[in-house]
Amino acid sequence: MRKEHPSVRFIEQCYALYEQKMYRVAYNILHDTFAAEDAVQDAFVRLMRSQACFEDPTSDDCKKYIITVIRNASIDIYNQRTKEIAGVPEFEELSEYVGTSQSEEMGIEDRDSLRSLVRKLPEKYRLVTECLALDELSVKETSMKLGISEPLVRKRYERAKAKLREGGADYEK
Question: Is the pTM of this model over 0.85?
Answer without folding.
Answer: no
